[in-house]
Write a structure and sequence with these properties.
The structure holds three protein chains of three kinds. Chain A is mainly alpha-helical. Chain A has helices at residues 9-19, 21-43, 75-111, 113-127, 131-142, 146-174, 176-183, 188-224, 236-245, 252-279. Chain A contains ten helices and no strands. The longest helix of chain A has 37 residues, at 75-111. Classes of the chains: A mainly alpha, B mainly alpha, C alpha/beta.
Chain lengths: 286, 306, 559
């Protein structure tokens, strides 16, 4: 009945993920996009902020593979550079929200009782208010600072992570192996980090993967409204805003950044779904 | 039920109070804020502010004055346009946003729920894959990409709808559609997941064993459990529709509260920004109460103490 | 009146490992008004068989081979959905195992009971509701007439199952399929529900297919018994003949491995004994040195007026209500009761997993409390626990080796890595597993094996007291016998003391020298196992014993 080579749960999950073609395709796609954004600005013969006023609104050509914008800047360089910013904000803000959210959720769920009730009430209150309003408020009061931007976004996205971690912690806490650990005299720290956390990794990874696109959307929306990154820095959001304005004159300005942005979101969401299926095969997907 | 309403209202009041207090202190102490003495403020604004906020009085009195004003619905004069009261501006702009939001929600529900239900019923067939792929695309296509694109396609090229403004019903279509489609995608996925999960439950098997038809199972037995996640989502959806309206109103040049808010943010119109934040917070808390009530109506277990 | 005839049924499931044959060619028939018991353990295929009749198996992944199920001249396996809908709930009805999840939580119970009449257009909705109320009265849930808008969560387990029976029989079908309908219920409730099924089905002349893992239970109502093992029918006969004269070794084993009055004192026969399969090794016989360990006269553990109180929304709940128990070293105290009796809470309070509210717990004569547990680990090492669910009892991310070594590391039990590994291997061997199992993960083992690993884990700290909290309740009776044998021989070889908690009085009697019966948080009777089982003093205890199916109490008594 049992195979000679033992298989851990991670190995099983990995093999399920690999079998999911869309998820693997997404993973590869994300790798390419990241590479493109990382090396693109270096490979391009133009800098992202190099203006060239006699070359405005040029359609894609060999010299400018994605065309130029209203100030003659090369779109390829700007798009790949913008990608760096967008991806970086996405990853960093997700990391911040992960650290805060997981710690908070795990503590709340493990503590239980009144502490848990109050901690969650706090989360519920914050959850019901639109994030973007608060980020805008913070931006207005404290100025437009790049660091502040992603701290603000991360600090606002932690709520979902906290809720999910707490829900999982509560389910796990009831499992007998946690009680057995207490009966064996293990300390709370040992139980939290050796027994609870490893079993939480699955959902954490899934939601982290799904948080990245949410964060990127938020940043893009802010940049679109003009409240995000400041010129001459560009993110995909600000590029899309420029493109939307000049859509009649130069549709490529909207098309290329928009396409790349959506493609990244698409891949991240598919990967997240794939991870969810791989790590929890009972989850209803198909 | 009344107990639930009561307890929720009781919860709402301290929440609002906390938000009001936090915003009050944030503005007082934020660097570069409106009360930073180093800022050069035009004389007439300064006079109005001082009288409204009682800036010559001790901090605690200012706070009480602030709360008193709030309870009366007085949010102060606009920082940028002092001849206007913030509450007046909100009263003009909000109905516009409300219409936009309501239409978008309607589109989202009318498109999303049936699609999700169909996908769940015809699982793994083309009636599942197609709508679900489209909805995945919908989630990944932000409103600020979709909006301009729709303007380009349906307005500029095909001349079907006006691209900007908010003068009459024809203006309503494109913006509501843009915002609505995004939420339709979310709702379709949620409905599908909720229905699939519900259809796996034991009691569905019991219904089948009684000889119920698929239609009866769907409408009488699976609907409540399946739609609960959507109802729960409505809370954050309201919040999302509000923030989504900022973008939409910017794209389509709609004079709604969102546009006012963003403009105020740019202009550093502090009183307007704060007033709007408080207004939205109150609105959302009451909308969430409504959602809780609907939830309790569907799910008998949650009617008991919470 | 129709016969149900199952002819050469084959059902398989497509899985990642290939096709799994759940039902491998079985024949079965039920005559009108007959009660047929379908008995088997997990993996026998009995549930799959039952669910196939009304086409309730999700059809991928289930695949059907040759074979037919004949009802009124139709082959039920090949009928279209429309036809099946006309048969379900009208000609053939079904009830399921877990009444909580089998009733729609969003609809009132009365509406659900009335529904079959409405679906099959037998009468108008108003009349249907009347009939539903009437039927609910018949099954003993009359109070619902005062609260017709009651929901399932407002009913107890037993009442829910009665409502399900009402729902199934309201259309007066010809055949009732009952898939483990009493398994999730308390023993006394089980007996009542069984009685209702028997009474109504005889009354309405309804045939019954009663599926269960409990051979003794099935004997209470079945005219014929069919025993399944690994997808095949191994024996079929009249109930009396199956018990008096079993033919197939598996059936002999099933009958023998249950703890009854006739069972040997220290050892239950297992399936391997009868089927000539490889024996799972038992721990070595007690060595001289252990047997010579002095037995003290102070009880190892005692409680005095122990109270455990929980705060709930409405009022404080006394889970444990002024309980006095005492366990002598080297013996077993059996703690028996139904759900809500407080037996599980009591067990956990001894280990300080639940805090006591009042009263004392004494270990080796000394009072212990939370502070004593916090001060040193000595107490924790001396008392361990084995839980009911072997699947949830092991951390799925750790290998067996890691699980077993961890307590040794935390308590600094053995110093060198090499010694620890040796100890782990010897523990595994002691519970009947081997060194080759060290690097495997819990999900690669069966339920019985996992429980053994839990036993090994409990032994790592060399405890004196082990609390067995319903640790065989979730198992097949054949696996149960193996685990009980293991526990008994460990007690002999290591001089262990047990608090054996269970709702199953027969199992408790087999394991224990003394028994305490709990009800609503109180110990209502306390005495030697023989005395309690054969000469109960309290009415509740007698009810508990009466509720045990006669064939599970004693073969001689019943047949």
């Amino acid at each position: 009945m049992s195979t000679h080579r033992s298989s851990s749960l991670s190995k099983d999950a990995w093999s399920r993920l690999v079998a999911n073609k869309m998820a693997i395709a997404s993973l590869i796609m994300l790798f390419f996009i990241s590479m493109l954004c990382l090396f693109g600005p270096l490979l391009s013969s133009h800098s992202f902020d190099q203006q060239n006023l006699d070359k405005v609104f040029q359609a894609p050509s060999i010299d400018h593979p994605l065309g130029t914008d209203s100030l003659g800047r090369d779109l390829f360089a700007r798009t790949t550079y913008g990608g760096r910013i967008s991806l970086m904000v996405g990853l960093l803000a997700t990391l911040v929200s992960l650290i805060i959210g997981v710690t908070y959720g795990m503590a709340s769920g493990y503590a239980g009782g009144k502490i848990d009730a109050w901690m969650m009430r706090f989360v519920d209150v914050l959850y019901s208010l639109p994030f973007i309003i608060f980020v805008i408020l913070l931006m207005v009061l404290f100025g437009r600072n790049f660091l502040l931007l992603f701290l603000a976004i991360g600090a606002v996205e932690w709520l979902t992570m906290a809720r999910i971690t707490r829900a999982q912690t509560i389910t796990l806490k009831k499992a007998e192996f946690i009680e057995a650990a207490r009966a064996l005299g293990f300390s709370h720290w040992r139980i939290l980090f050796h027994h609870l956390l490893p079993n939480l990794i699955g959902p954490i990874i899934i939601y982290a993967t799904l948080t990245v696109p949410a964060v990127m959307l938020l940043e893009a929306a802010l940049s679109f409204l003009g409240l995000g990154v400041q010129a001459p820095m560009s993110s995909w959001g600000s590029l899309i805003q420029e493109g939307a304005e000049k859509m009649d004159a130069a549709p490529w300005l909207l098309l290329f950044p928009g396409f790349l942005f959506c493609l990244t979101l698409f891949a991240l969401n598919f990967l997240g779904d794939g991870l969810r299926d791989a790590l929890d095969p009972k989850h209803t997907k198909g | 039920m009344t107990k639930l309403i009561f307890s929720r209202l009781l919860q709402a009041i301290p929440t609002l109070w906390v938000i009001a207090t936090v915003t009050f202190f944030m503005t007082r102490f934020a660097p570069g804020g409106p009360f930073d003495s180093e800022k050069a403020i035009p004389e007439e604004i300064k006079i109005k502010l001082e009288s409204h906020f009682g800036l010559d009085q001790p901090l605690f009195h200012q706070y009480l004055l602030y709360l008193k004003n709030l309870l009366q619905g007085d949010l102060g004069p606009s920082f940028k346009y002092p001849e206007w009261e913030v509450s007046e501006l909100i009263a003009t702009a909000f109905p516009v946003s409300l219409t936009l939001g309501a239409l978008s929600l309607m589109i989202a529900l009318l498109l999303g729920i049936p699609t999700g239900m169909l996908a769940a019923l015809k699982r793994n067939s083309w009636m599942d894959y197609l709508p679900m792929s489209l909805s995945m695309a919908g989630i990944c296509l932000p409103t600020f990409v979709l909006g301009p694109f729709l303007i380009y396609a349906l307005s500029t090229q095909l001349g079907l709808f006006p691209p900007l403004g908010w003068y009459g019903p024809t203006d309503w279509f494109l913006p509501s559609l843009t915002l609505g489609l995004f939420y339709a995608a979310y709702i379709a996925r949620l409905t599908r997941a909720g229905m699939l999960e519900t259809l796996q439950q034991e009691y569905i098997k019991t219904a089948k064993a009684k000889g119920a038809s698929s239609w009866r199972i769907l409408s009488k037995h699976a609907a409540q459990g399946g739609l609960l996640p959507v109802i729960t989502f409505l809370g954050p959806a309201f919040a999302g529709l509000i923030s989504g309206s900022f973008v939409i109103e910017s794209i389509f040049f709609i004079p709604g509260l969102g546009k006012f808010f963003v403009t105020a943010a740019f202009n550093r119109d502090y009183t307007m920004v704060l007033g709007t934040v408080l207004f939205y917070a109150t609105l959302i808390i009451f909308l969430n109460l409504l959602v809780d009530l609907v939830q309790a109506w569907i799910d008998p277990k949650s009617r008991q103490s919470k | 009146m129709a016969d149900l005839t199952i002819d050469n049924l084959h059902v398989g499931f497509a899985s990642r490992e290939g096709m799994v044959r759940a039902v491998d060619g079985i024949d079965l028939s039920i005559k009108p008004g007959q009660v047929v018991g379908l008995v088997g353990e997990s993996g026998s295929g009995k549930s799959v068989t039952c669910n196939s009749i009304l086409q309730l198996l999700p059809s991928p992944p289930a695949r059907f081979g040759p074979g037919r199920i004949d009802w009124s001249g139709k082959d039920l396996l090949s009928q279209k959905e429309r036809t099946m809908q006309q048969i379900r709930g009208k000609e053939i009805s079904m009830i399921f195992q877990d009444p909580m999840s089998s009733l729609n939580p969003y609809l009132p119970v009365v509406d659900q009971v009335a529904e079959p009449l409405i679906i099959h257009k037998i009468c108008s909705p108003d009349v249907a509701k009347e009939k539903a109320l009437e039927m609910l009265g018949k099954v003993g849930v009359a109070h619902v007439q005062k609260f017709p808008r009651s929901y399932p969560h407002e009913f107890s387990g037993g009442m829910r199952q009665r409502a399900m029976i009402a729902m199934a029989l309201i259309t007066q079908p010809n055949l009732l399929l009952a898939d483990e309908p009493t398994t999730a219920l308390d023993v006394t409730v089980q007996a009542k529900v069984l009685a209702i099924i028997k009474e109504l089905c005889i009354d309405l002349q309804v045939g019954v297919l009663f599926v269960s893992h409990d051979l003794g239970l099935v004997a209470e109502l079945a005219d014929r018994v069919v025993v399944m093992y690994r997808g095949k029918v191994v024996e079929e006969n009249e109930t009396k003949s199956i018990f008096r004269n079993p033919q197939h070794p598996y059936v002999k084993a099933l009958i023998a491995c249950r703890p009854t009055l006739e069972s040997p004192k220290d050892y239950l026969p297992t399936v391997e004994d009868f089927m000539g399969e490889k024996q799972t090794p038992l721990p070595p016989l007690p060595s001289e040195s252990i047997q010579a360990r002095p037995v003290s006269s102070t009880p190892l553990i005692q409680t005095r007026q122990l109270v455990v109180e929980f705060q709930t929304d409405d009022a404080p709940l006394l889970a444990v209500d002024h309980v006095d128990i005492s366990i002598e070293q080297g013996t077993t105290l059996g703690l028996v009761g139904e759900s809500g009796s407080g037996k599980t809470t009591l067990g956990r309070t001894l280990l300080n997993l639940v805090k006591k509210s009042q009263g004392e717990v004494l270990f080796k004569g000394k009072a212990i409390d939370s502070a004593s547990f916090a001060k040193t680990n000595a107490l924790r090492k001396s008392m361990q626990i084995i839980f009911q669910d072997p699947y949830a009892s092991l951390n799925p991310r750790l290998t067996i080796e890691q699980t077993l070594i961890e307590p040794m590391v935390v308590h600094k039990i053995v110093d060198s890595k090499k010694d620890r590994l040796e100890k782990v291997v010897s523990l595994l061997q002691e519970v009947g597993l081997g060194e080759e199992h060290l690097h495997r993960y819990p999900h690669e083992f069966s339920g019985g094996q996992r429980q053994r690993i839990c036993v090994a884990r409990a032994l790592t700290t060399e405890p004196e007291l082990i609390i067995c909290d319903e640790c065989v309740s979730a198992m097949d009776v054949s696996v149960q016998a193996q685990v009980l044998n293991l526990l008994k021989s460990l007690q002999a070889s290591r001089g262990l003391t047990y608090l054996f908690i269970s709702h199953d009085l027969s199992v408790v009697k087999f394991m224990s020298e003394h028994i305490a019966v709990m009800q609503n948080g109180r110990v209502i009777e306390n005495g030697s196992a023989d005395q309690i089982y054969n000469h109960p003093k309290m009415e509740y205890t007698s009810k508990l014993i009466e509720a045990i199916p006669k064939a599970n109490r004693s073969l001689h008594l019943s047949f």
